[in-house]
Amino acid sequence: MSRPRKNPDYNAEMIMNEFLKDMAEYYEKSPQASLRDVAAEFDVTLLKVRKILITAGVYSTDISNEIQELEEQGRTIEEIMDTTGLSRASVHSYLPYKKGIYNAREVSLDAERSRKYRQRKLAVLRLAENRRAKDLGTFGASYLYPIFLRFGVKSR
User: Fold this and answer.
1) pTM value surpassing 0.85
2) Which site in 2, 80, 82, 156 is 20 to 30 Å from 114, CA atoms measured?
3) Predicted pLDDT at 107
4) Given this model, what pLDDT does residue 116 score?
5) Residue ranges of the alpha helices (H) in 30-103?
6) Low-confidence ranges of the chain (pLDDT < 50)
7) SS3 for 28?
8) pLDDT of residue 123
């Protein structure tokens, strides 16, 4: 038997679909709206907006269509890079999301745990540095960081 979920209301697929729908509706309702306008409205990056709108099927350009066709033909990212002359990041930015939107408004429990872990780890490192500096005192600091005496001779 598995353990109960800590946040039973969290549904990543539902959150992604709602975000896609909201952004696509905003983009379609405002024909004069640029990708920059959409990015500003939803407080996300321009590349993320393009990728989300491509995923939703409401935005396409010649290059995005070409990249998607090449991928559907089974070409690898490296082959697409060679064919189009684009970087890896650019190729990925023209492909739709497959797993989900990263850095969405509501984060998953695993992402939240990872963030807390990184914060605790950083706090422990800072605490250790502060203790080490206090314990060393003046002599210890000169041991860690060699100083030059008046005549250019090292202290160690």
Assistant:
1) no
2) 2
3) 58
4) 85
5) 35-42, 46-56, 62-72, 77-84, 88-93
6) none
7) helix
8) 87
Contact 101, 19 (CB under 8 A): yes
| C-beta separation of 56 from 14 below 8 A | no
The answer to whether 24 touches 56, Cβ cutoff 8 Å, is yes
Distance CA 20, CA 26 (A): 10
CA 156 to chain centre: 46
Joined together, the tokens standing for residue 141 give 């600091």
Return the pLDDT at 129: 81
Q: What is the structure's pLDDT at 149?
A: 53
- Multiple choice CATH, 12-106, 1.10.10, 2.40.50, 1.10.287, 3.40.50: 1.10.10
- Measured CA to CA, the distance from residue 116 to residue 72 in angstroms comes to 39
Structure tokens at 47: 């590349």
59 Cβ neighbours under 8 A, 6+ residues apart: 27, 35, 50, 53
